[in-house]
Every structure is written in C-alpha cells, then in structure tokens.
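help with this.
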Amino acid sequence: MTRNIRIVKDEEGSELVDFALCVPLLFGIMFGVVYFSFALYANHFVANAAKEAARYAVVRGSTWHGTSCATQSGLDCTATSTDIASFVAAELPPGLSPSNLSVTTTWPGTTSWGGTCDSWNGSNSPDCQVSVQVNYLLTLPLPFVKQNALQLGSSSAMTISE
C-alpha cells in the first residue's frame, strides 16, 4: 500500500507533461500574432494603394496629350482603368498575390461638391472626380477553420486637377 502512495506522489516526468500541454498553446499564439501582422500588412497595402491609384489618375486626366500610359512611370499620358490597375499591380509588395487583387476605377461625372462636371473632354476632365476601389482577398492558412479568407477593401475619391 505504501508503494502505491509513493508512485502517486512521484512527480518524475511532470515537466514533460507540462511541456506537452504548453507548447501547442505557445505555437498557436505565435502563429496567431504572425497571421494577424500579415493581415495588417495587407490591409495597409490596400488602403495605401487606393490613395496612390486615385492620385495617379488625378494627375493624368484628359487634358494631357491623350496618349495612353505605356509605363507606370509615364507622366505625359491619360490614365485609363487598365493603366490604373497595372499601376496598383506593379506596387504589390512581396507576399501578396496579384491573382487576389482587383482594382475598379470609375469616373462618375460629378464634381467633389456633387454637381455635374464639365466633361467636354471625357469624364476624366479637370474638376471631375475619380473613384478607385481596391480589393484584396487575403487567404490565411488556418487549419480547422472553414472561413479562412478575409476580404480587404479600400476606396479613394479625388478631384482631377490636370
């Protein structure tokens, strides 16, 4: 009987059990922090990309020479929806997939105060607005979770100056 009590009170190997219980929790927290940081990284890109794409469209309105932008760095060109989408895709940081990126550019034909703009040279004339919507589908490699994708989106609207 004393032998059985001695076996129950023996704590040999308890560190291994504690380690086995704590390590999955520790790794879960560490990977959670990494995935959350990556989601913030992607969200920051989407927000910044919408602002930069709107600015790209604003300075390349219809009063330029009317040539399409052959490169993203071309300054003497009129930006189209395709040019703006190419600009955003060229700015995509490492770790994000271009196949999960969508860019929608619209020229609603209104001014910033809501009136109808003078679109004598197209809807991207000076004093007209341009609106850019950038969406990114962020997939996270989370096991045992059905919904492992986050839809990140941001939009920006500016008034065309040139």
